Structures are given as structure tokens and as C-alpha cells.
Amino acid sequence: MKNIISKKVRLIVDVIMYSVILVIGYMFLAISDLNSYINSPVYVYSALYILAFLSLIAYFLVKKDTKLNYLLLSLISVIFATTTLINYDATKFNFYNTTFALIVIAYTIFFGIFDTIEIKKLNRNKLFVKVPIALLLLVIGSIIAISIYTRKYLSLYIMSYYFIALGLFKILETCMYILLEGPTFKQRFNKDSEENVKKKNPKKPKELKKRRPKLLKK
Predict the structure, then answer these.
(1) Distance of CA 207 to the CA centre of its chain
(2) Fewer CB under 10 Å: which end of the chain, C or N?
(3) CA distances from 167 to 22, 90, 195 (A)
(4) Cα 179 to Cα 123: distance, rounded to the nearest angstrom
(5) The pLDDT of residue 149
(6) Burial status of residue 203 (CB atoms within 10 A of its CB: 0-12, 13-18, 19 or more)
(7) Which contiguous run of DSSP H or E holds residue 141?
(8) Burial class (CB within 10 angstroms; exposed 0-12, middle 13-18, buried 19+) of 11
């Protein structure tokens, strides 16, 4: 019973955290539309500090499940938020390209490593969900990092799409896990498995015992 409750808590925490990442992406998108690119680093390091704080809370909520990715996510967010805060200079336009590209690369590598670790622990059904999403996020992160580095004024605008994609696909992945672990799917899957086994190994009908004719007593 405790394991079931801990799994539910972990899934709820996952959905909440990925929703936060999605909201951060939409916030970056809204800010970039205001053409306030000079103050872009202020919004970025503020959002990353918030993400670091919430990730730390999420780690303590699922600590018993030894899910260290939230602790490391908090650490990475603090590192890049502090780097953005210290090196911020509105006159250095290369700052946007280099730092924002590094942020996307760091988060892409981070989630890629943890997805690879989780793949080894998943069953076949969850692999069909995890592998395509992990590869897709890896490709999206690489393309967006290159796009940020080659463009000057649209760096925050482009980076917003990475956080939106990351949050959206991770929420989709978690929701698929919830469906796969639900009782309806398990019952259907077990039923189909039993039917397949019966088809492969049909039970032989019991042979009718031959009745010996009784000898009539003279």
C-alpha cells in the first residue's frame, strides 16, 4: 500500500514540476514578445532560481524513492542562474547567444542522461513511451541550442520554445505512465496475455475413458 501511495505522489510531483517548466517557457515567450531583450537575463535567472527552489522541494517529497534528478536539477538551475546573474551585462550581446545556448545544452544533456538511466528500469510498455520522447527532446534541444548561438536578438524567444517543448512532452510522458499503470489497462493487458497463452498452448481435451463391457454372470 505504501508503494502505491509513493508512486502516486511521485507521478503528481512530476506533473507539477513539468507544468512549472512549461509555464516558464510561456513566460519567456510572452516577455520576448515585449521586445525587452536587454532585461532578458533578469527574467532568466529569476525563473531558474524559482525552478531550483521548487525542484529542491520536489526532491524532499520523493526522497524515499531516491529520485536524485530533482536534486541535480535544482543544482544545475542554481549554477546557471548564478552565472547569468554574475556575468550579466546589457552591452554584451554575445552574452545572450553563449549563455542561453549553454543553458539549453545543459538541460538537454541532463534530461538525456536521466532518460537513459530510467530506460534500463522500465518495462516494455513504458519503453514505447520513453524512447521516442527522449530522442525527440534530444533533437529539439540540439537544434534550439544551435539556433540560439547563431541569432543575436531572438535568443530568449527561441529558448522559450525549448522549455515549452520540454514541459509539454514530459507531462505527456507522465500522463501516459499514469494510464499504463491504471487498473483498466492492466486488466486488459493481462486478459490479452492470457488469451495469447491459451492460443499458443491450447489445453488438450481429456480423453474419454473407455468403458469395459461388463461380463454377464452365468
Answers:
(1) 56
(2) C
(3) 4, 29, 39
(4) 14
(5) 81
(6) exposed
(7) helix 124-150
(8) middle
The residue with cell 483498466 is: 184
User: What is the DSSP code string of 9-77?
Assistant: HHHHHHHHHHHHHHHHHHHHHHHHTTT-GGGHHHHHHHHHHHHHHHHHHHHHHTGGGT-THHHHHHHHH
User: Residue type at 18?
Assistant: Y
Distance CA(183)–CA(15), nearest Å, equals 20
Q: What are the cell numbers at 141?
A: 534541444
- Structural contact between residues 130 and 119, judged by C-beta atoms closer than 8 angstroms: yes
Instruction: Check if the beta carbon of residue 111 is closer than 8 Å to that of residue 72.
Output: no
If you ran DSSP here, which 8-state letter would residue 88 be given?
-
- Give the C-alpha separation, 172 to 104, whole Å: 20
Cell of 82: 548564478
152-172 residues labelled b (16+ CB within 10 A) or e (exposed): eebbbbbbbbbbbbbbebbbe
The residue count of the chain comes to 218
Query: Cβ neighbours of residue 130 under 8 Å, at least 6 residues apart?
Result: 115, 118, 119, 122, 173
